[in-house]
Amino acid sequence: MKIKLTILFSFFYSLAFTQETFESALIPSKNGAVITYTSDEHAFTVTLNSNSIEPSDQPNFLTIDGWILQSFILGYDNPKAKDMSVEENAKRALSQYVMYELDYFKEQLKLEIEPKLEWGHMKGLYFYFWYFDTPPELETLQGQLFLTTMCFNQFLNLNIPLEKGKSFEEAKAYLMNIGKSITLHDHPIDFESLYTELNK
Known about the structure:
Elements: H1 5-9, E1 23-29, E2 32-38, E3 43-49, E4 53-55, E5 61-64, E6 67-75, H2 87-108, E7 116-122, E8 125-133, E9 141-151, E10 154-163, H3 168-179, E11 183-185, H4 191-198
Antiparallel strand pairs: 1-2, 2-3, 3-11, 4-5, 5-6, 6-10, 7-8, 8-9, 9-10
């Protein structure tokens, strides 16, 4: 797999409306790529192990092993500095955010959907796995799968649009496996330095 580094550095876009803002990039590695989000204080990464990764012209999307994957972040305003390692705090914040997203699908996109949510915990992070079937009149899609968690002051969303003819169980397993690679760093990451380290 060969992908131009300059393309990858402009590929992912960060949506952050809080004091700590994050830049993002998709960094090629010997084994695939690493989605990297960094601020002046912290960073978090999502590792993609695959020899089949293709960036998209659409921001935040790529194709990996035949699956479409979307990764994006949105800043969370936490004025009372609640500890998101506490399950009650994390669940309240994530529930509000997921409801916001579902309202968007229902009200703005006019989709009649019946979402299903599963609460979970892995590698020190609480998350929602949530999904819904899309209306049958959509020609190419049969559903949407999301894994949403919190990394510092950011909601991180990993999404697989489930194309018709593909397996829900396989898509869920693939998404959850990617989710297991999420890693928090208590320091910023320099994109060029990480690229060098990953490709020694």
